[in-house]
C-alpha cells in the first residue's frame, strides 16, 4: 500500500476567505410580503433621537401584485393527525376557520400565480390548539415546499394544498 496515510500540504498563500454574508438583507420574502426596510429620507437630515433611520413603507400596494400573484377567495389545507393517521382536507374561504380534533386552522389569505393557477399556492394561516394560549403557528405556508415554514406540533401536521380559484 504505497502512499497510504500520506497527507499533502496545501499552499496556504493561495487560499482566500469567502466574503461574509450580508445579514441586513432577508434571504426569503414571500410574494406580496413587505420587507419593511426602506432607505432613510435623502434630504440630508439625521434621524430624530431614538430612531434608527429605518422608515416603514406604509404606502398601499396596487392590485394586482407586481409579481404576477393574485388573491384567491379561499384554499384547501390538509391536516394529518399523527396519532390516528387520519388526514382531513379543510376547504376554507379567506378568513374562515376549520377545526380538526383540538386544532383550529384559520386561512387568512391564499395567493397563487395568475400565469399558472394550478402550479403553486401559498397561504397565510393562524393555527391554534384548544386550551392553549395564543397561536401555535402564524405565517405563510407554501404548497410546493411545506417544510420551509412548517407547524411544529407533536400530534398534528398541517400543510397548504392549493387555492380555490374563482
Kindly name the structural category: mainly beta
Morphology call: globular
Radius of gyration: 23 Å
Strand % is: 25-35%
Helix coverage percent: under 10%
Number of extended strands: 8
> If you average the pLDDT, what whole number results?
76
Number of discrete helical segments: 0
| Largest sheet features | 5 strands, antiparallel
Structure in a nutshell:
With 166 residues, the chain is mainly beta. Helix content is 0%, strand content 35%. The chain contains no helices and eight strands.
Can you describe this structure?
- This protein has 166 residues and is mostly beta strands.
- The chain has a domain at 70-164.
- It is built from no helices and eight strands.
- The chain has strands spanning 69-72, 74-81, 87-93, 97-100, 103-113, 121-129, 137-142, 156-164.
- The strands form two sheets. Strands 1, 4, 5, 6 and 7 form a five-stranded antiparallel β-sheet that branches. The protein has a three-stranded antiparallel β-sheet with strand order 3-2-8, with no helix packed on it.
- It is globular, with a radius of gyration of 23 Å.
Amino acid at each position: 500500500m504505497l502512499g497510504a496515510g500520506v497527507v499533502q500540504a496545501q499552499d496556504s498563500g493561495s487560499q482566500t476567505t469567502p466574503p461574509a454574508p450580508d445579514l441586513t438583507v432577508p434571504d426569503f420574502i414571500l410574494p406580496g410580503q413587505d420587507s419593511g426596510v426602506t432607505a432613510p429620507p435623502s434630504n440630508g437630515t439625521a434621524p430624530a433621537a431614538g430612531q434608527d433611520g429605518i422608515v416603514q413603507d406604509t404606502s398601499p400596494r396596487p392590485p394586482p401584485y407586481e409579481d404576477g400573484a393574485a388573491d384567491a377567495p379561499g384554499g384547501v389545507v390538509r391536516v394529518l393527525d399523527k396519532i390516528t393517521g387520519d388526514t382531513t382536507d379543510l376547504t376554507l374561504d379567506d378568513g374562515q376557520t376549520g377545526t380538526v380534533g383540538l386544532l383550529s386552522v384559520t386561512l387568512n389569505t391564499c395567493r397563487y400565480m395568475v400565469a399558472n393557477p394550478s402550479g403553486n399556492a401559498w397561504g397565510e394561516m393562524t393555527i391554534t390548539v384548544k386550551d392553549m394560549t395564543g397561536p401555535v403557528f402564524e405565517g405563510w405556508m407554501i404548497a410546493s415546499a411545506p417544510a420551509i415554514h412548517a407547524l411544529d406540533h407533536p400530534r398534528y401536521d398541517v400543510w397548504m394544498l392549493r387555492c380555490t380559484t374563482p
